[in-house]
Amino acid sequence: MKKGLHKTIQASFLVASMCFTTIGVNSFDIFADDAVIIKDNSGLYTVSVEENLTDGKLYECPYEKILVSDKVDSIGKYAFAKSLSLKEIELSDKIELVVNGLCFGCENLESINLDSVKEIGNYAFSDCKNLKDVKFSKDIKRIGVRAFYNCSSIKSIEVSGNVEEIEDEVFSGCSNLSNIKLNEGIKTIGKGAFFDCDGLTNVKIPDGVLSIENVSFKNCDNLYNVVIPESVNYISASAFAECGKKLVIVAKKDSYAYKYAVNNDIKVSENIVVEAKKDEKIDISDANVSLDSNIYYYDGKRHVPKVTVKMGGYILKQGIDYNLVYTGNKKPGIWKAQVLGKGDYEGSLSKDYKIIVTPVRGFRIKNVKKRSIKIFAKKRNASKNITGYQIAYKDIKNRRFKRINTLNTGKLEYVLGRFKKYKTYQVKVRCFVNTNGRMSYSKWSGIKQVKIKK
Q: Which DSSP symbol is given to 272?
């Protein structure tokens, strides 16, 4: 025990001004010089600190309350950290800096006055899970990284415009935070600043903010309206990742935020959207639907594309949020993948995809005897399901192909005859499929030409 701590504090020390009983300091494990331990009528123990504290000085302090007197103007890093019994701290008006980790891991801390504080260091109140009332000074200039990380009982905060950056993960894990007011002057919403803040429903980003960084609002499952001003010129692709099905970005048309929402499949509006009641369903027709492929080549088999449905930056689940119905899907043609709302969703929308006849590739032509042209392919084209081919040809001087011959066989081999000698002719080919009397044609091949010499 340090010099001075062996003295027994007289019982009458503070009785005149407070209904407290002072306890002999040597009967407790006290870590600071000139500290007084007080027991009130309810049995609450308070440590009254009368001198500056160095780093970790009251680490794991076993008492419920700490009073920091006006004599104190400096408190070291992690000074009160891991004090699991601590419920309340009263700081003197001289304390303008809350240092790194001051109350880190004080799980039962419920309140602390920050009226005179201008800067809060990194991890200052991390894991203070019962901290409820947090009111920042209007003069506060900085709130450090993870300063209020995992403070799951905080419900409301207001940050003044003197703070230029909402730093990384500063309010991450504040699951009951439902009301935030950010004032003009803030420039950046840092990485993970409001990550996992499930209680947030409406957020207004103040004018003047320039950037919203990685995972700033990720996993805010109940976030509904986020108002983003024209001043914002950067939003990370992951800023609103996994924010639930109802998210709407409110922004002016043609602004960066408006375009960001469109490009990231997030619902966007120029006006605040009134949140639907719990028993109201969401219209799935506003969702973004994408197919893994929208073109298939006919082979006589069934083709069904893989469907992804996104809404509010959230990927909906087949069988839970929607059902799929396919039209056609076997014969050549244009077919639909229909998305039918289910569960929290209603309505429908569809996405077209095609099954087409494979175009002819790798065919050859050559001049053969009797002023003829032979058209052939070394390999069978595309699939065994081809019904036949059409061959179009013309004199190179003509603008259009006027003559078409039809070949009803799956093998491309045909001779066209009686052309004029020493003239050049052009040929193109396409194949077709007959499915129950319905003809479907491939695109025409590229043009090949040959000069008649024989």
A: P
